[in-house]
Specification:
GO terms for molecular function: intraciliary transport particle B binding. This protein is an all-alpha fold. It has 18 helices and no strands.
């Protein structure tokens, strides 16, 4: 609306006002909305735009690194944290060592991740990073040391369950996930973790039953659909599994076979057909 219009125009009839409101374009989402809806592409676009105008805005850079990390661009995220640690934008904050450690862990640079984690302040997040690094290095003494430092917090227990799963202790992982699910039913993704454990324990029908809860809320989930297909493969045959995994085609607009895991499983479902492609 142009506020310089004359008062007579501004006080025109409601009939004339309606078209003006209809002509207004869609509201541009703000950063908070993007993050709440996990639209990290939109959040990065907003933050990069602001970065051009205010390249030394530390808060903006921290949010940008956060969004890059959650979008899977761990290298871009850690580059920002390293710049912040160099003191280019003011006094370095030690917590950025911890955040950089998270990025390096996902980049499979475990030694560097450990070094940065140890430079950061003592925290539950630091303990979880070092716990997982110890597992990657097969360092049993450190693994047990950090295990004893874990608390009953949801994040710490999820971390412990993940290590149990990675060490093929599927029943122990299942017990933790089921307990957390009873305490926090709003965490629907826990159903996927429980279903994955039951699949590993060869309880394919139970896995499908639990997985259905998550798929009802998120029918487009590639991970859940793939797990459902694997259960069908074990219970029935490759054709039944392939029929399930093709549900991704509806949600991925023709790009459903670009995922490495999906391509691998399709080869398994087809008894090795196209394995060399």
């Amino acid at each position: 609306m142009i506020y310089s219009r004359s008062r007579s125009q501004a006080s025109s009839s409601k009939r004339d006002d309606a078209p003006l409101k209809e002509k207004q374009g869609p509201k541009i989402p703000d950063l908070e909305t993007c993050i709440q809806t996990r639209d990290y592409v939109g959040a990065v676009a907003l933050l990069e735009f602001k970065r051009q105008a205010s390249p030394k805005d530390v808060t903006n850079l921290e949010w940008l690194a956060y969004c890059y990390f959650h979008y899977g661009e761990h290298r871009k995220a850690v580059d920002i944290y390293l710049d912040l640690l160099k003191g280019r934008y003011g006094e370095p904050n030690p917590i950025h060592h911890t955040y950089a450690a998270c990025c390096f862990f996902y980049l499979a640079e475990y030694k560097v991740a450990e070094e940065h984690a140890l430079k950061g302040p003592s925290s539950k997040l630091q303990t979880r990073i070092l716990f997982h690094v110890a597992h990657k290095f097969n360092d049993e003494s450190k693994l047990m040391m950090y295990h004893q430092q874990l608390t009953d917090s949801t994040e710490d227990q999820l971390s412990l369950a993940a290590i149990h799963y990675l060490r093929s202790h599927f029943q122990e992982a299942t017990d933790i996930y089921k307990r957390l699910l009873l305490e926090t039913r709003e965490y629907l993704a826990l159903n996927v973790y429980v279903a994955l454990c039951y699949c590993k324990l060869d309880y394919y029908d139970v896995s499908l039953e639990i997985l259905a809860v998550y798929l009802q809320a998120h029918p487009e989930s590639a991970l859940a659909i793939n797990l459902k297909a694997c259960n069908h493969f074990r219970l029935y045959n490759g054709k039944a599994a392939e029929a399930e995994i093709k549900a991704l085609e509806e949600h991925c607009k023709g790009n459903w076979t670009e995922n490495d895991l999906v391509r691998h499983n399709l080869v398994v479902f087809r008894n090795g057909e196209n394995a060399l492609q």
